[in-house]
TrEMBL record:
UniProt organism field: Martelella radicis
A GO molecular function held by the record: 3-hydroxybutyrate dehydrogenase activity
This protein's UniProt keywords: Oxidoreductase
Full protein name: 3-hydroxybutyrate dehydrogenase
Pfam families: adh_short_C2 (PF13561)
Top EC class for this record: oxidoreductase
Length: 258
């Protein structure tokens, strides 16, 4: 039977790849995120063409709790419940701590951490009522280890690991699992955008940032792909993963083994 899946921040990058993965499995999708009307329509159409399920778009801004509540309520009203919640929306800002704009700190904590409190807070009553649920948090290797110049991002992602474990314990007897996926570097728009700033902060060329900074952390020297992350999300949503909860899957080319 088709599941209902909400993926925050799924108009681009990893979120879009995860939405495509669930669509191919025949699930109903709620797509969310920013972008031009044309880009959003294209994402809805292309995800919708991949499987038998239905696809809708909801424009909730992950900094706005009432819009997040409406996102979850819309999934329920449209499809009669919510089986899988993927907290994926995220932004980045790269800067030394003393130059870090306070409003950027607030924005990153809101989108990369607090929005997941609100999605989970609204989704859990629906999942408890249904007697099952899967919550998948797109965290990062930066949820486990730090890198300089990313104070807000690393703090938010470490917070997401704490949220994942706490909520997993609370829901352990309700057939609802809560897990994190911790990717290394994936060449999405989020990473492309930080290359010029990292180059500036470290006094390097953009090519040096790719090879010496980004992939320096990844022993395999290869970027992770969106499809590999989607496959992990599908696994965490499957029956085979019913006893996997409160933990993370690292897909980081060996980064956090060091
Ligand atoms: P991306 O920039 O390609 O996509 C981010 C998505 O979030 C977009 O759909 C964007 O519209 C949406 N978004 C941004 N602000 C929003 C807001 N206020 N409300 C609603 N949607 C909003 O980024 P990505 O690389 O695909 O990252 C997705 C997730 O994966 C993030 O949480 C990121 O931290 C995490 N991650 C990425 C990498 C990587 O290397 N790309 C590595 C580890 C973890």
């Amino acid at each position: 039977m088709a599941r209902t899946v909400v993926v925050t921040g799924s108009t681009s990058g990893i979120g879009l790849g995860i939405a495509e993965g669930f669509a191919k499995a025949g699930d109903n999708l709620v797509i969310n995120g920013f972008g031009s009307e044309e880009a959003i329509n294209q994402a809805v159409e292309s995800v919708g063409s991949l499987g038998e399920g239905s696809v809708i778009y909801h424009p909730a801004d992950m900094t706005k709790p009432d819009e997040i509540a409406d996102l979850i309520a819309t999934a329920d009203q449209t499809f009669g419940g919510l089986d899988v919640l993927v907290n994926n929306a995220g932004v980045q800002h790269v800067s030394a701590i003393e130059d870090f704009p306070p409003e950027k700190w607030d924005q990153i904590i809101a989108i990369n951490l607090t929005s997941s409190f609100h999605t989970i807070h609204n989704a859990v009553p629906l999942m408890k009522k249904a007697g099952h649920g899967r919550i998948i948090n797109l965290v990062s290797a930066h949820g486990l280890v730090a890198s300089p110049f990313k104070s807000a991002y690393v703090a938010a992602k470490h917070g997401m690991m704490g949220l994942t474990k706490t909520v997993a314990l609370e829901l352990a007897r309700h057939n609802i699992t809560v897990n994190a996926i911790c990717p290394g570097y994936v060449l999405t728009p989020l990473v492309q955008k930080q290359i010029p700033d990292t180059a500036k902060a470290r006094g390097l060329t953009e090519e040096q940032v790719k090879t010496d900074v980004l992939l320096a952390a990844q022993p395999t020297k290869q970027f992770v792909t969106v499809e590999q992350i989607a496959a992990a999300a599908l696994y965490l949503a499957s029956d085979a993963a019913s006893q996997v909860t409160g933990t993370h899957i690292s897909i980081d080319g060996g980064w956090t083994a060091q």
